[in-house]
Write a structure and sequence with these properties.
Strand content: 35-45%
Number of strands: 32
Strand order of the largest sheet: 1-32-31-30
Distance between the termini: 21 Å
Shape: globular
Oligomer: single chain
Helix content: under 10%
């Protein structure tokens, strides 16, 4: 039987009552409505809250002008703040650009975005407290008088970090708790006379932050990827010429690939090159040493397919990197989705061609690959558009440490509809469920919706809350996770939802022991 239609309740003796406000469902045709109003709600971003639930931001055009909004949700997908959330800024932009969302070490959501309030286009940051209060004034705190493509990230110690592109250079700035700049001036990613455009920010070790940038010379010139680590005081930690994540070949024009932190002070990158269209992966150590060779490892040795749009995740316990991508027979409408796993030396673990998450078939496209950890397992989503444009369906699959699928078949997350910009994020670190959110609806009427994806492949409330890692069994691993959360309000281990992990939760787990 398909995992997504498994029974969703515990045995009667150990059943727990779901809150009346529960919004996530097991029906892919009935996703939770996360942001809905007049006109468009687009470009969602999510950060999980360690105590449970998540922040979600988006651009909202309900009042004319694409304004950044944010809402805090509980673990059931129910909005905590009234009025559908909080408008962060009242702007007049007629179109959108990228922006950033993170959370600081005080639990505040921090948004870094453009603002045209008061004239001119500037880069600003705004913090929103867990109660929904704007903390840095009605118009935020200005970081730069001009700039574009703002990003937000965290340092290793939890401080918020902002980044943007200004002129022809990528900029990075650590923020104080009151939103002011922590450094006398923004750190700049430079490489001679070339333009550097900020791509992403992720935490390093200690108080450091890692920034990546695309090196750009001309429209037709090679576009390569570099990275630099900055200390808590803004000093560059890696070589002055930046770490060359790759320098042979070129990114697609307009591609600014994100990356992930390895949790040790290093970073893992995935991107695709042109001529040929091939995905590559690189792991940079905490000291800035490249681990997968000069230009990274290709996801496949076999030729004959275009491989693009990679998504990467990392399993610290096994020190393995997992990557998915879209693949296509050149000059055809034959598409599929592939996956590869690497050990920490860059060796491929799933053969020369990787493993097919979705077999090659004649469809309009396979696009928008996403990857993350759900219950500690590599979990992937992708969008299948078939037989023609506009019939997008999001699918998901989880694999074990060896790359073997954990579910009997992929889980259908959505039904055929307009689906754009999906994302996947853990709802609570290490918990057995994650959030898949996406835009639904056409131009001018899009909303943001979402589904809770459990580690057993089901949607909605978990089939067995005592199975904390979602591996289908309640055993010593789950007990270890519960004991590690003892005395806290960790919602992943608070099985009876009374606000504390204690003997009552232990009794529920032992009653469900397998």
């Amino acid at each position: 039987m398909h995992r997504s239609v498994l029974a969703l309740g515990l045995a009667v003796a150990f059943a727990t009552t779901l809150p009346v406000s529960a919004q996530f469902t097991s029906d892919p045709a009935q996703p939770a409505i996360l942001a809905s109003a007049a006109s468009e709600q687009v470009q969602p971003k999510v950060v999980p809250i360690p105590s449970g639930g998540f922040y979600m931001s988006w651009y909202d055009n309900r009042a004319g002008g694409y304004d950044p909004w944010i809402q805090r949700f509980d673990s059931n997908g129910v909005g905590v703040w009234p009025d559908g959330g909080v408008r962060v800024l009242d702007t007049s932009f007629s179109s959108t650009e990228d922006y950033g969302l993170t959370m600081d070490n005080a639990g505040n959501a921090v948004i870094v975005t453009r603002s045209d309030i008061g004239g001119g286009v500037k880069i600003v940051a705004q913090a929103v407290s867990p109660s929904g209060a704007l903390l840095w004034g009605p118009t935020g705190t200005q970081l730069a008088a001009t700039g574009n493509a703002p990003k937000a990230g965290r340092a290793g110690d939890g401080a918020a970090v902002a980044g943007w592109s200004e002129g022809n250079r990528a900029k990075v700035m650590r923020l104080n708790a009151d939103g002011t700049a922590a450094w006398a001036s923004a750190s700049t990613i430079t490489d001679g006379t070339a333009t550097t455009i900020l791509a992403d920010l992720q935490p390093g070790d200690g108080g450091s932050v890692i920034a990546s940038a695309v090196r750009y010379t001309t429209f037709s010139g090679a576009k390569t990827l570099q990275a630099q680590k900055y200390s808590a005081t803004g000093a560059a930690q890696w070589v002055a010429t930046n770490v060359r994540v790759f320098s042979a070949g070129s990114l697609q024009f307009g591609s600014f690939p994100p990356f992930i932190a390895d949790g040790e002070g290093g970073a893992i990158f995935a991107w695709y090159t042109t001529s040929p269209l091939m995905c590559r992966v690189q792991w940079v150590s905490p000291t800035g040493a490249i681990k997968f060779g000069t230009d990274g490892a290709t996801v496949a040795d076999s030729t004959g397919l275009n491989r693009v749009d990679p998504a990467v995740t990392y399993v610290p316990a096994s020190r393995r990197v997992f990557v998915s991508w879209s693949e296509n027979v050149p000059n055809s409408s034959i598409y599929g989705v592939g996956m590869q796993a690497f050990d920490e030396t860059g060796q491929k673990l799933l053969g020369v061609a990787g493993y097919p998450l979705a077999q090659l078939e004649t469809v309009y496209q396979y696009v928008q690959n996403r990857a993350g950890l759900v219950g500690g397992f590599p979990t992937f989503t992708w969008t299948r558009t078939a037989p023609n444009f506009g019939n997008d369906v999001i699918w998901a699959m989880s694999v074990d440490a060896g790359g073997t699928p954990r579910w009997t078949s992929p889980t259908q997350v959505s039904v055929a509809a307009q689906c754009g910009r999906p994302l996947i994020a853990p709802l609570v670190g290490g918990s057995a469920h994650g959030l898949v959110a996406w835009e639904r609806g056409g131009t001018g009427s899009a909303d943001v919706v979402g589904a809770r994806l459990n580690a057993d492949g089901s949607l909605g409330p978990p089939s067995n809350p005592a199975d904390l890692n979602g591996d289908g069994a309640v055993n010593g691993d789950d007990l270890g996770r519960l004991l590690a959360a003892w005395g806290t309000a960790d919602p992943a281990a608070d099985l009876n939802d009374d606000g504390i992990v204690n003997g009552d939760d232990l009794g529920i787990m032992l009653g469900a022991w397998t």
